[in-house]
Design a protein that fits this description.
About 45% of the residues lie in helices and about 10% in strands. The protein is mainly α. Among the domains are: about 160 residues, Glutamyl-tRNA Synthetase, Domain 3 (Glutamyl-tRNA Synthetase, domain 3); about 100 residues, Arc Repressor Mutant, subunit A (Orthogonal Bundle). It has a 3-stranded antiparallel β-sheet with strand order 3-4-7. It has a two-stranded parallel sheet with strand order 1-2. The longest helix is centred in the C-terminal third of the chain and has 26 residues.
């Protein structure tokens, strides 16, 4: 059977990275089985609809490389793919349930239901609109058909699912058999007073009509599984397979990862920027890095390997590798994985993705920009690190690592800098490493010490790329100028 799997977000705001991971797992599962990936926008809750969030969802998926086969923009023979455009379908299907007495009209006012809830609360109980009370309430189950027809013309109503006694059991591919006593369920509303279907009803109808074979969603929907199964049963429809994914958890403490956690930890929780909220893309992440990291939040390939392309993830993904427990979000790990992907970029790819970062460098080093990128590439965790890593090429050090200079003072750094000057002045930069090595032997000092002093002269600090390669880019004149500048600094600060 052709696998047809859908990602069905509600456009009530920007797509959270938890939602992006759900989309990713849907995509990996179906593409591993050479199936069809569908995007459906569940926008029937019009009170919560946020303008442009539907467009944001599509743009976020596209940036992540999650290609949609059928959806609002792509089309497809099972559309429309926006639930707000499918109301005639829901109206048709709800009539089938009402006519078969699997669902019913309920005219009870909110005031009456609130009173009933309060009475139950006083007893320490929770009010449920179910088989124990439905016959005493204001619904169509005990009314003449003609009376019902008249009332639905002039009164407000909802449509409820009629749930009978028994046990509902559904198989989850990850969690095994899930059984629920129907006695704990109330007669769920399928159609609201505004005429729009609830999530439960529209979700099941659309999954059936779009021929969805496997439903992959977050574990927060696990409590709804029995209700959805009962809706399938009421239509005598075959139920799809289900997989309920573990949550992405806070970096510290308990609970689901939230926007507030991002604000506290200084990391984004959206793939793209939304209003004033920065996204992973704008922070300087590669889409491949984000996707790689999200795949490892709740899934494992079964070995120690951690770096994957999207294509490799598709080949390796299987349900057996999905964890039942939640996965803590680790921003340091996300950056490390992004660094691994950055280190594999060619210069042309980097420039195409982050053109602004390259502009200034090209002005000063037009023929060496690619060489410089390759020099610092493995040091880049985020695209913004590029500017920091090449800063020493664009301007002289403004400050020097005094702690290191103090540590090396026993080796007379001024004298060593003068020796380095002589070597570079006479022999140039070719073979510099070997020449400096000879100097350390003559002076009987550690090679690391002289390299530290040389690095401080050119960069101002110990961090940075290979210093010999850096000096060849700076060229002889600028290298000598910076050595002289550090000498003067040391002479002026002698105590």
């Amino acid at each position: 059977m052709l696998e047809r799997v859908r990602f069905a977000p509600s456009p009530t705001g920007p797509l959270h990275i938890g939602g992006l991971r759900t989309a990713l797992f849907n995509f990996l599962y179906t593409k591993n089985k050479k199936g069809v990936f569908i995007l459906r926008l569940e926008d029937t809750d019009r009170s919560r609809f946020v303008k442009n969030s539907d467009t944001y969802i599509e743009e976020a998926l596209a940036w992540a490389g999650i290609c949609v086969d059928e959806g609002p923009s792509e089309g497809g023979k099972y559309g429309p793919y926006r639930q707000s455009e499918r109301l005639n379908i829901y109206n048709e299907k709800i009539k089938i349930l009402i006519d078969s007495r699997k669902a019913y009209y309920a005219f009870d006012s909110n005031e009456k239901l609130n009173d009933l809830r309060k009475k139950e609360e006083k007893k320490g109980l929770v009010f449920k609109y179910d088989s124990s009370v439905r016959n005493s309430l204001d619904n169509s189950l005990s009314m003449d058909v003609d009376i019902v027809k008249e009332r639905i013309k002039r009164e407000s109503y909802v449509v409820r699912l009629k749930i009978d006694a028994g046990v509902t059991t559904v198989e989850d591919l990850l969690r095994g058999r899930v059984s629920v006593d129907n006695g704990v369920l109330d007669d769920k509303i399928l159609v609201k007073a505004d005429g729009f279907p609830t999530y439960h009803f529209a979700n099941v109808v659309d999954d059936y009509l779009m021929k969805i074979t496997t439903v992959i969603r977050g574990e927060e929907w696990l409590p709804s599984l029995a209700i959805h199964s009962l809706i399938y049963d009421s239509f005598d429809w075959e139920i799809p397979k289900f997989i309920h994914l573990p949550l992405i958890l806070k970096p510290a403490g308990k609970g689901k990862l939230s926007k507030r956690d991002g604000a506290i930890g200084g990391f984004p929780v959206f793939p793209l920027s939304w209003e004033k909220e920065i996204g992973f893309k704008e922070m300087g992440f590669l889409n491949s890095g984000v996707i790689n990291y999200l795949a490892l939040l709740g899934w494992s390939p079964g070995n120690e390997e951690e770096i994957f392309s999207l294509r490799n993830l598709v080949k390796l993904f299987c349900v057996k590798g999905v964890h039942k427990g939640g996965a803590k979000f680790d921003f340091k790990k996300a950056k490390w994985i992004n660094q691994q992907h950055m280190s594999k970029l060619e210069f042309s790819e980097f420039e195409a993705l982050f053109p602004k970062e390259v502009v200034r460098l090209k002005k000063q080093y037009p023929s060496k920009t690619e060489e410089i990128f390759l020099l610092v590439r493995e040091r880049l965790k985020l695209s913004g690190d590029f500017e920091k890593e090449i800063k020493f090429l664009l301007e002289d050090p403004k400050n020097y690592d005094q702690k290191t200079l103090n540590k090396q003072s026993k080796h007379s750094p001024i004298n060593l800098l003068e020796e380095i000057e002589v070597i570079i002045d006479k022999k140039g930069l070719k073979g510099l490493k070997e020449n400096l090595s000879d100097l350390t032997k003559n002076k009987q000092i550690n090679f690391g010490s002289i390299m530290q002093i040389f690095r401080i002269a050119l960069i101002g600090e110990l961090t940075g790329p290979d210093i010999i390669s850096a000096s060849t880019i700076l060229k002889k004149s600028l290298t000598l100028k910076r050595i002289s500048k550090l000498k003067n600094h040391l002479k002026n600060n002698l105590t």
